[in-house]
Structure formats: structure tokens, C-alpha cells
């Protein structure tokens, strides 16, 4: 491909991933210019191509697999396996999320591929880790949200455990693996050495627990569900306005003073139960009810305007549609078009990373390809002539 630009445009990536976590990692690479070749199994005899993340031409897969090229390749076939090794020899990175037994059976685990290309960076994501008593278990986001403790601290005491509304363990693992790949690239730049980079949904979500996890590891304290209220900072949470919900963060003494002054709440400011951060924390339920009574007398727009002007963070609680239509999100240009030969221009979500030397293009390079769409071009890049490709097609290998 000649239309790639970005800090990773010199890299070639073989993408064996399925589902969500692996593709999130690969998306980081392809969004910043890497030549990503999605290597997919040939379609089943019924021609179905739908995966766990939906149809390839649906929004989820279009957003996950944009900017890639695709080939189908039968890795179980000897010729297919040999062709894959030929590609590995010319690749910089391989990303996979197979179970350990599957990649060993296919002879595509790290030792196999490092023997072909010692400078290769081999990146893996699993549910529970590459070894250990649970390493063979299948792992998906919902299971890991529950098993990591995340669900137990989400929701309220009344609702019980509540899942986060996005695939947080999948996307976190993908982000961490992407960072690991970049670290391995820096190491290779200095030494020429490849290596195996891996993480798991379990490791990623435990790291995401952040200060709640550290409170347990240091003191043994198990975080409890707080609903929409911050577990340690008061007042910080969701409050009822006259026409909707707002989030307000007035936890520091300066912000608390500004909050009370902006809303004319002298009675709250002077109340002995709320003097000082410790007092506000100890009386947080009582204080929350008092603030609710105050905010119910004002609209969302009034609270957002008044409190932000006073230096108190405040924002509306709104749906995804309202978020993308907000003036700030529109200014940031988080939606980017991508050309698709059948769907036309599809609207996707750009990378959140901003680099001054590589401004975001007005459009993404391409939408997600259909499986096997780029077989001819990709294999030509690896030195196969038309006759070789035709032979592989006839044999059902590509």
C-alpha cells in the first residue's frame, strides 16, 4: 500500500486476531500507518462470515478492522502453513489471541515463528494469561468483569453488581497490548531483538481497578459499590436537576466554597456537618440529599453554565447520540469517514491520540475489507506471481 503515512508506516503486521481485544491492539497500529494484513480462515461451506462482533459490514467490525487488508488462508493446510511462514519472514509483528493449544497445534506459536524471523515481535492476548491454573479457560469481557471484582464495585447496594456498559476488559487489554508492542519496537530498535509480548483480559482489568485495587493490596480494604458517587471524594457524583441529571465535582475546599457561592447555598457552606473535607465525607449521604434538593430547582443547562464559570466541574448526563452531537466533540472531529466499495462512505470513530507531526487526515484510508478481499495484492507484495496465487485459489488454500 502506498497511501499509508504515520510513525508506523514502515511496519508490516500480520493480524490473526478475532473478537475484540486483539483487534483493538491492532487498530492502534493500523491507524498510525502500519501495513496490517488480516489473515482469516477461509469461510465455511455455507459462506457465513459473521463473527462474535457481528457482520463484517456492520458498524462494530467496520470500526475494528478499518485501514486493514484481508486475505483468507488455511493454516491447517501444509501449503497454507508454508505460505504463512513465508509471510512471517517478511513481517515485523504478528498479533494473535488463540488458545495456547490451538496455536501450538497450528505450529504458529512464538518459538515456531521466532525460528523463522528472530526479530519478530509476537503479541498475544488471552482471557486469563498464557500459563497458570486458569490459562486454558475461555475468557470474554462479561466473565472477566465479574471475576475481577469490577462488577462488585459497580452499581449500588440496592441494584447489586452491575456490568460496565462497554467491553472494558477487552478494550483495556487491547490498549495495553498495543503499548507493549510499542515498547518491544523500541527495544528492537536498540538491539535488533524480537520478543514475545502478552497480556490478558484479567491482568488488564485488575490494572484498571487502579486506586481501588491499591487500597486492597496495601490495606486489605475491599471497595464497595457507590453507584454514581465517588468512593472517596465528596461531593462528587450525579445529582438531579429540574430536567435531567448532572455530574458535579466539588470535592476540594476551594471547589466547595465556589459551589456554594455560585448557587447561593450559604446554609450548606456554613453548616457544621459540612465544614471540612472529613466532615463532608462522614455526612456524605445527608449532604447528597441536600445538594439534590438544591440542584432540582435549576435546569441542567443552568447548572452546567453557572458551575463551570465558577471553576466547579459540572456536565450533563447524556446519551451517546447527544455526546457525538455536542459542540466540543464536533470540534474535535471524532467522526471520520472511510470509503467502502459497497457501503459508500461509512462514519467511524478516529484514534483518540493526537500527534503534532501527524495530524489526523480528514478521512480514514479505507473501511474494513471483506474477508479475502485483498488476496491478489497482498500475495504479490510477498513475491507470489499470478500463477502461484491461482494455484492456491484452486486448492482452496486462499
What would your notes on this structure say?
The protein is 42% helix and 15% strand. The chain is an alpha/beta fold. The chain folds into two domains: 12-208 and 336-394, Crotonobetainyl-coa:carnitine coa-transferase, domain 1 (Rossmann fold, 3-Layer(aba) Sandwich), CATH 3.40.50.10540; 236-317, formyl-coa transferase, domain 3, CATH 3.30.1540.10. The protein has a six-stranded parallel beta sheet, sandwiched between helices. A three-stranded antiparallel beta sheet has the order 9-10-11. The protein has a two-stranded antiparallel sheet with strand order 6-7. α8 (168-191) crosses α9 (201-208). The chain is elongated and about 85 Å long. The model has no long low-confidence stretch (mean pLDDT 96).
Largest sheet: 6 strands, parallel
Total domains, how many? 2
Question: What's the CATH H-level superfamily name of the largest domain?
Answer: Crotonobetainyl-coa:carnitine coa-transferase, domain 1
Number of helices: 19
Q: Name the shape in a single word.
A: elongated
- Would you give the CATH topology of the largest domain? Rossmann fold
By CATH reckoning, the class of the largest domain would read Alpha Beta
N- and C-termini, Cα separation: 20 Å
Cα-based radius of gyration, to the nearest Å: 25 Å
Q: Which segments are poorly predicted (pLDDT under 50) over 5 or more consecutive residues?
A: none
**Structural class by helix and strand composition:** alpha/beta
How are the strands of the largest sheet arranged?
A: 3-2-1-4-5-8
Strand content: 15-25%
The beta-strand count equals: 13
Amino acid at each position: 500500500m502506498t497511501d499509508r503515512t504515520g510513525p508506523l508506516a514502515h511496519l508490516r503486521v500480520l493480524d490473526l486476531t478475532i473478537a475484540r481485544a486483539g483487534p483493538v491492539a491492532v487498530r492502534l497500529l493500523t491507524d498510525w500507518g502500519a501495513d496490517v494484513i488480516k489473515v482469516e480462515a477461509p469461510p465455511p461451506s455455507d459462506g457465513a462470515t459473521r463473527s462474535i462482533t457481528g457482520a463484517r459490514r456492520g458498524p462494530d467490525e467496520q470500526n475494528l478492522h478499518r485501514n486493514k487488508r484481508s486475505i483468507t488462508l488455511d493454516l491447517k493446510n501444509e501449503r497454507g502453513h508454508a505460505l504463512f511462514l513465508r509471510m512471517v519472514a517478511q513481517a515485523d509483528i504478528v498479533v494473535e489471541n488463540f488458545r495456547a493449544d490451538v496455536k501450538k497445534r497450528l505450529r504458529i506459536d512464538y518459538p515456531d515463528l521466532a525460528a523463522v524471523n528472530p526479530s519478530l515481535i509476537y503479541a498475544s492476548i488471552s482471557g486469563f494469561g498464557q500459563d497458570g491454573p486458569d490459562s486454558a479457560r475461555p475468557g470474554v469481557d462479561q466473565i472477566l468483569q465479574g471475576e475481577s471484582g469490577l462488577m462488585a464495585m459497580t452499581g449500588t447496594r440496592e441494584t447489586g453488581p452491575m456490568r460496565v456498559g462497554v467491553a472494558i476488559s477487552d478494550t483495556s487489554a487491547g490498549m495495553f497490548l498495543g503499548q507493549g508492542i510499542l515498547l518491544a519496537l523500541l527495544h528492537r530498535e536498540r538491539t535488533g531483538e524480537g520478543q514475545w509480548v502478552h497480556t490478558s483480559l484479567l491482568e488488564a482489568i485488575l490494572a484498571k481497578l487502579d486506586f481501588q485495587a491499591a487500597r486492597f493490596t496495601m490495606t486489605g480494604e475491599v471497595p464497595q459499590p457507590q453507584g454514581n458517587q465517588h468512593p472517596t471524594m465528596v461531593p462528587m457524583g450525579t445529582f438531579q436537576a429540574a430536567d435531567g441529571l448532572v455530574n458535579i465535582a466539588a470535592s476540594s475546599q476551594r471547589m466547595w466554597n465556589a459551589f456554594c457561592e455560585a448557587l447561593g447555598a450559604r446554609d450548606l457552606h456554613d453548616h457544621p456537618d459540612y465544614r471540612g473535607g472529613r466532615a463532608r465525607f462522614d455526612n456524605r449521604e445527608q449532604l447528597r440529599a441536600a445538594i439534590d434538593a438544591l440542584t432540582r430547582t435549576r435546569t441542567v443547562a443552568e447548572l452546567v453554565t453557572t458551575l463551570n464559570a465558577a471553576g466547579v466541574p459540572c456536565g450533563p448526563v447524556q446519551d451517546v447520540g447527544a455526546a457525538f452531537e455536542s459542540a466540543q466533540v464536533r470540534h474535535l472531529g471524532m467522526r471520520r469517514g472511510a470509503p467502502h466499495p459497497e457501503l459508500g462512505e461509512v462514519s467511524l470513530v478516529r484514534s483518540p491520540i493526537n500527534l503534532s507531526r501527524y495530524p489526523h487526515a480528514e478521512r480514514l484510508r479505507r473501511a474494513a475489507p471483506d474477508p479475502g478481499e485483498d488476496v491478489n495484492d497482498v500475495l504479490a507484495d510477498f513475491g507470489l506471481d499470478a500463477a502461484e496465487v491461482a494455484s492456491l485459489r484452486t486448492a482452496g488454500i486462499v
